[in-house]
C-alpha cells in the first residue's frame, strides 16, 4: 500500500457570497431554483451572495449540501463565513482508518484474479491488488514513483499507452472524464493534470466519437504478452463519508470483457 498524507488547503479567501454564487453558477442553478431546493427565501439567498447578509453556519452547510459541494470545499466555505471547519481529513495510515483500510483490502482481494485499484481525487494510487501489477509492467521508474498517478501511467507514451490498442478512443473518454471532474470541482491541481494529460501525444479530438452500435461501454483493449485483452470497469465510493480522505477515495474494478481475457487472468493467477 502506498500511503499518502493529505491536508486541507484553506486558501480560498474570497467572500462567502462570491464562493456560493460561483458554486451555484457551476451547478447551473438560478437563485430561485437553489432557494427552492434549500428551503430558503430567494431574497435571503440574494443578500448572502451580495454580502448584505451573513449566513449562519447551518445555512452554509445546507446550501453546500444542495450544491453538492465536495467536503474539502465545504470547509473553505465555512472558513470564508467565519466558522471553523467541520470535516476532518484523516491520513489513510492512521489507526482511526483501520476499518476503512480493511474494507478496501477486502474488496481488492475479493476481486482477484481481476485487477482493481484504489485512487484518490487526483487518481493517485492508494492501493491495488496483485492482479493490477501487469498494468505497471514495463513502465519506467519515474512513472511508478509515489505518488503513482494511474491516469499519467495509462496515457504517457512510455507507460501503458504503448500497449493500448484503442488508445485514441480510450484517451478521449478518460480525458473527458477528467474534464467533467474539473468542471464539477473547480480544482486547480486537477485542472493542471487535465492539461498535462492533453499534452501527451495521441489523437484526441474535441468531440468523442459515438461507440460502436454493438458495444455497451468503451472497453480498454491492451496487448499483454502477445495476447489481446479487453476490459471494462466499474467505480465504487463510500456511501456516507464525513471525512475528506474517505470521501475522495474510489475503487476502480476491472472486469474481462471477453472469454480470452478471463482465461488470461485466471492463468496468470494460477487458477
UniProtKB/TrEMBL annotation:
Signal sequence bounds: none
GO molecular function: DNA binding
Top-level taxon of origin: Bacteria
Database matches in InterPro entries: Cro/C1-type_HTH (IPR001387), Lambda_DNA-bd_dom_sf (IPR010982), MLTR_LBD (IPR041413)
Boundaries of every HTH cro/C1-type domain copy: 20-74
Database matches in PANTHER family: BLL4672 PROTEIN-RELATED, BLL5781 PROTEIN
Name under which the protein is recorded: Transcriptional regulator with XRE-family HTH domain
Protein species of origin: Actinomadura luteofluorescens
